[in-house]
Every structure is written in C-alpha cells, then in structure tokens.
Specification:
It is built from six helices and 16 strands. With 245 residues, the protein is of the alpha+beta class. It has three domains: 58 residues, Structural Genomics Hypothetical 15.5 Kd Protein In mrcA-pckA Intergenic Region, Chain A (Roll), CATH 3.10.290.10; 88 residues, 2-Layer Sandwich (Alpha-Beta Plaits); 74 residues, 2-Layer Sandwich (Pseudouridine synthase). Strands 6, 7, 8, 9, 12, 13, 14, 15 and 16 form a nine-stranded mixed β-sheet that branches. It has a three-stranded antiparallel β-sheet with strand order 3-2-5. Strands 1-4 form a two-stranded antiparallel ribbon. Helix 1 packs across helix 2.
Length: 245
C-alpha cells in the first residue's frame, strides 16, 4: 500500500529546504524537480519518499539571503511599529553596522527587503535578536516544533525559595498550559540565568511574577550556538558562514 501523498511545498518545508512560501514561488518558477522531473503546478502532491532537487537558481537565491544579529536596546519593538515605538529593523543601517564584524560585507539597502525578526524580544528587554530573509532559519527558530535553546540573564527583585526556584525549572503553567522544562539558576546575588526551549509572550516576566519576583532587567545572550558576545547595544553584524543555530 503506497503512502498518502502530501503537498510538495509542505514536504520541502519539513525537510528544511525552504519555507512553504518560498517553495510555492520556486515551484512556479520551475526551480523544483521531483525524481528528476521539473514540477511547476502549485498544490502538486507527491509521495513523501520521493527525491526533491532544487535548481542552481534556487540555490543562488538561498545563498544570497541575509541574516543579521542585532543587539536590541530597550524601547524598540521586535516586529511592526506599535504605540509610537520603532521596530528593531530600523537599527539595521550602514552607520550601525558593527565595525568589528568578522564578515567582510557592506550594508546595502536591498538587504532590508523581507528582513524580519525570527522570534520576539519584549520592548523592555535587550539583547540578541535575529532578523532574516531566510525561511529555513525562521522555521528553525520559531517553528512549532523548534527545540533551540535561548539563554537570558535576568535581574530580579524579591525573595526566592528553593522550592520556587524548582518551580521555575519545572512545574509552572501559563495560559492554562504547562511550560516545558527550563534551566534556571542563580548567576549572581540578584541575577538569574534562564535557558528556555520555548517562547511564550513575556514568558520570563510572567514566570517570575508567579513566584513573587519582579524583573528589573532582561537580556538575551544566546540563541542556540550563536552568542551575543561583544556586539554593542544598537549595533548589528552578519551571521557568519560558519555559524548556525
């Protein structure tokens, strides 16, 4: 009995070849082949075991996709402008390009087209924000089944018992759903280190509220294997060719 056929664009996304939107675009352009035969009809369904190949044109398009690491300051929103606050992408300019960026590549206005945040960072928070044109990276970081670690340094006020610390690690719920296991420990006298594998809205602040703590500062310092490092606030650098999440 043969396997049930699935939309080609869905399989391409699941295999990490590209996003579903990119898949539809490339299929329409004739850049996708299944078992060596070009496919140009949107909505085409294939057997999940079939071989998929991308044309050199699709590969060149992928390699030209830009991903940047931004040190977001307080007062900028991650996504679209709201309540008079500027979106973080407005900080990606020639003037704010980190002078010590190891990637020797200049800023061009064209790289802003389609450059979008892969994940959120609250307006009151600082640190590492990823902006990308690459659907594969966006899926890796914010897809429904993502398991990429995100590390934060969180300054807090209040008393925290050992039992409450254990609850921060595992046992709390938000929006009626239990949170995945976290790694939370003291970094110093008034700062906690959080490592999460999910990203609910204002998650860390809400977790701290549940155990009687008030967050006074929050900084994201790592996503997966990519660290903020010495990148100054308000500046950005390219994701290096040897870096991955």
């Amino acid at each position: 009995m043969s396997a049930e056929k699935v939309r080609l664009s869905k399989i391409m996304s699941e295999r990490g070849l590209c996003s579903r939107r990119e898949a539809d675009d490339w299929i329409a352009k004739g850049w996708v082949s299944v078992d060596g035969v070009p496919v140009t009809e949107l909505g085409t369904r294939i057997d999940p075991a079939q071989s998929i190949a991308l044309s050199p044109a699709a590969r060149r398009t992928q390699s030209a996709r830009v991903t940047v690491i931004l040190h977001k300051p307080v007062g900028y929103v991650s996504g679209q402008a709201e309540d008079g606050y500027r979106p973080a992408v407005t900080l990606v300019t020639a003037q704010t390009h980190w002078a010590q960026d190891p990637v020797n590549k200049p800023f061009t206005p064209a790289m802003l087209s389609g450059l979008a945040p892969a994940g959120r960072l609250d307006i009151d928070s600082t640190g590492l924000l990823v902006l990308t044109q690459d659907g594969r990276i966006a899926k890796t970081l914010i897809g429904a089944d993502t398991d990429v670690e995100k590390e934060y340094l969180v300054r807090v006020e209040g008393r925290l018992s050992q039992q409450a610390l254990e609850q921060l690690n595992f046992g709390l719920s938000l929006d009626g759903k239990p949170l995945r296991r976290a790694d939370v420990r003291w970094q110093n006298r008034d700062q906690l280190r959080f490592v999460l594998r999910e990203g609910k809205k204002r998650q860390i602040r809400r977790m701290c509220e549940l155990v009687g703590l008030k967050v006074t500062g929050l900084k994201r310092v790592r996503i997966g294997r990519v660290r903020l490092g010495e990148l100054p606030p308000g500046q950005w650098r390219y994701l290096g060719p040897d870096e991955s999440f």
